[in-house]
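Changelog excerpt

This revision adds worked examples to the README so contributors can see how folded entries look when concatenated. The first example is reproduced verbatim below.
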Amino acid sequence: MKTFSKILTAFAATALLATGCVNEDPAYKKNDPGTTPPDPNAKGYLALADMSMRVVIDSDTETKPGDTSDETAKPQTRADEVQPDVDAYIVEILDASKKSVLKEKYGDLMASINETGRLELAVGSYTMEVRSEEAAAMQTAAWEHPVYFGSQEFAIEKNKTTPIDEIVCTLNNIKVTLMCSKDLADKLTDATKSTVTLGETAMTFEKSETRAAYFLPQAESNTLKLHLEGAFADDPDTPVRINKTISDVKAGQWRKLSIVITYSDKGDIKLDITVDGFVADDEIPVGDPDNDEEPAFPIAPTLECPGYDLTKPFRLMASMFDAEGNYTQPFAFDLTSSNGIESFVLTISSDNAQLTGMVASIGGPAFDLCAIGSSDPAYTLLSGLGFPLGDDLKGAKAKSFDIAGAMKQLYPGFEGTHTFAFAMTDAKGLTSSASLTLIVDPEHENNAPTVVWEGYDIDKRYTISEDTPIDINIAAEAGIKSLVVKIVSEKLTPEELLSVGIPAEFDLCDVPGAGHNSPEEVANALKQFGFPVNEEVKDKTVLPTISITPFVSLLFMVANECNNDFVLTITDNAGQTTEKTLMLYVP
């Protein structure tokens, strides 16, 4: 692995020089023409005598299954006498090239500094990182196991002393709790449980679970998925299932999930999941323990549509419907309103005159779904499309509804661009909005994304030479939503790739961080090896030819006499996915 790192580092440096680079030396390394270059052996000092460690943790009020209130206190910094054992925290100093120049436990470091209270370091830029445990020891998920991290950049100048006074560590993983009040728990069978997953990692919450699960983030932005499986105690043969997607979850956040009961206008009991999001140091109001209806964290209503990006138009296509014209996938919305929904205004607009005329004939284009009863002219149409109406919606704190039926009504008869705009107001006057734009254009439907290896059949494996051109052309008429590359090699392991900051799997539309490297650093490394990144890829309909010949040259150096594959998974903005594998044997 060390040999590989040296080869790849040298190779990357050569590639960077070949393409040209900008001089990014810090100011202390720059010299005016005619001046004497800086002494490469120059030293300076890092003062540590006054350095202290502070850990910011959440001090939430523990919620037991017997609680009916929902109390949460503002996160506090622990007093010195109850701070965690920071002496065991790992302190690492990295130079500008991310090379470790010092690594010790905080307690050992403070005990070992000399009487001057400072360390001698070469002149340059540094980052001090502090973590509560070794990165290699961090579990992907565990009960009641928070991990804390902090960092501070500093520069060492010749014969000068740079002080570090305080390092602040905050939560570095994702906290997840699931609350089920006792009165609700009594209504559920003992077998009822909820599973929360992040990628391949899963934690299962029993209905009486009070512990917090801590997940190690896999990227800067993560997606949690919850699946509840169970039944009501008075009807154990009828299963109850709920799926919930929580997106854009980041390190340092606490996602507080609650199982709640909702009622239809017929009095039927249903279950749903609400989600509150907290961040360390947020000011979080404490709920009134004498008022069960007072939400602990008042936020404006939210409307999510798992699996669909409401910020982009969605194109309906024939491949999405069965032989009877039914839309084959759910088109489900999840409405959450901690204060209860008071008004839910749906405004339907379209460039199709026939559709706008129909909407106008029933009182449109705007409808307050909370105010529509069975005698309203719009009731039959809107309920048929799948929208909740009247008492089934008004006052609800959580509501799920599926408008897949609307897709059948629109496609293929109503060509054009149609927008469903939602304006929501809760009982305390908090407002929010969202919209769904649908495109119906049967004559010019998009094809699935295409991947072509110029001059070769990409579905076959080839034995290549060092001068074999690896030029890939990718097109997606609907625009590229994600382009995931997975490197699978019989010799080049993910750990070896990660050791130099390149992950074995990455989305070129949203390049993630890897190891100690930031997303920007990973993106720069990928660009050196021929990959376009981020805005060069996202939403593009045609990409310039991707030539990964520089990366293939590397394979001849460190991963020869074996198969080296690149799995390309392209998903477009219409939800279509194409997967192709570039299969190479390197002799």
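The second example, added in the same revision:
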Amino acid sequence: MSGPAPTGAFARVPARSLAGATAVGVVVWSSRVVGILTLAGGLLAGPRRMLGEPFRASVGLPEFVGVGQVVVTVVAGVGMLLLAAGLRRRKRRAWALAVVITAALTAVNLGRVVGPAHGHAATAAAVTALLLGLLVLTRRSFPARSDPGGVTRAGQVLVQFAVAGMAVVWLFLALNPHRLAPDTTASDELDQALLSLVGVSGPVAFPPHETWLDDLTATVGLTFGVLAVLGAGYFLLRSPEPESRLGPADEERLRAMLAHRSDPDSLDYFALRRDRTVVYAPSGGAAVSYRVLAGVALASGDPLGEQGEWNAAIAAFLDRAVAHAWVPAVLACSEEGATAWARAGFSVLEFGDEAVLDTETFTLEGRAMRGVRQTVARAERAGFTIRVRRLREIDPAERAELARLACRWRGDAEERGFSMALSRTADGADGDAVLAVAHRDGVPAALLQFVPWGRDGLSLDLMRRDPAADGGLTEQLVVDVVRWAGGHGITRVSLNFAVFRGALERGQRLGAGPVARLWARILHWASRWWQIESLYRFNAKFRPSWQPRFLLYPAVRDLPRVLLAMLEAEGFGGRPPALLRMLHR
């Protein structure tokens, strides 16, 4: 479903006025059209014949551009599309670069109006002048800040790739002097290496039987030149990705907010993850916690605080997203939260269900619970005993040892979880959290950690088990926690979040349609890597009630980026670690 027209932060930004939005849309679409036409002119034979020569003549390129013109044209087209993407995100740096480019093209075309190609130049000058005028008129519509270090990084990438390309091409030429014309000098070789970066033939002549070396050096040089331009453009226009950290002052403020909320959500406590940051409503009565990944400001769960202040907190979050050109998105919020976000203009996708156990009605009796009952009985016969305690009741030395064991049991597996994981184990700051530990002969073998859900609930945070321990321990731990909770004023216990639970169930029902069966098969296949089906089946065996959870995003075109950020945040994929290290360097 989709909400009404955007309100709140989006409505207050001057660029969101109807006239401003229309002008910005014209600028963005004009840039896209120019980029697509440029790509077509470089890749397709017909457009290249019709547009190639007029374009070359209008911008004053020399006739010896050669085959590199095609690649340069393609790069220019891709660059225009990247620039259009930056303009759509209202990036100030993209606007400034667009102004420089259109002003330069307008000046070039005006200078050629008196030349032989004056008809084409006059038309091109009129188009670029119109775009320049629109850019100037809409200058206040581009407030978003790009990466503060982007200019420096862009310059470094440009220089590094250019120097590397020149060095490689020069090395090819210097090591093969017998394949060059006899009168070739070292200066000619350097000029050839420099010009190869832009696809232009240099002063070095090659004998007819050695043209392969000419092609090789031209290809290598042009490849480095393309990488230099595209890499510099990426760093120049990319949105900032600050390291999210929840400071002590914010953590204390959020804890106070959680303590006073009258109707808490089961995911509220996870806002205390220390790899998040937070933005508050102007009154301070509500907040949104989020993390920035891949240009996405990814919030999780409902806004914190009282519902009467949610709209103001959402507006403040969207203001910050607009100011930094981030795509705002929300993962795993409740139906109440989804309603509030939908009022701010977000599209809503039901993304899965949360399994919730009622401690007053939970029982192991009955045919439906036979499997859990037998599993727990086997674990008890194996000699495992369970201790369930609040973290504040556990000695610091024991807490430290349990945290060490949990880390060792995880091994080399990546730490997973964002929306329903606290990212720390047995931390003294979480005194109200509950830790259930399975022992045999006094040695810990598995543990579960639950965080508070208001005053009368618990939410599962962490499951760890010694790989050498017997199966069934997790089920025994869950059952014992529910039994313990019933005697300590806890009425509800939240287990794992089951992604696409409804789709899995529908696809397995008798009489399910072909689309439902196909979607269920896709999820079954994906479970080889992402544990979609196994988590659903683990939850389902306890016969819980299912509470829907939602994913919210601004528009369909933003969904792929949002899903990438979500996978990376949850530890199920996203950008490869090697790529992230390279980008940070």
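Reviewer comment on example two: The mean pLDDT is 81. The longest strand covers residues 347-358.
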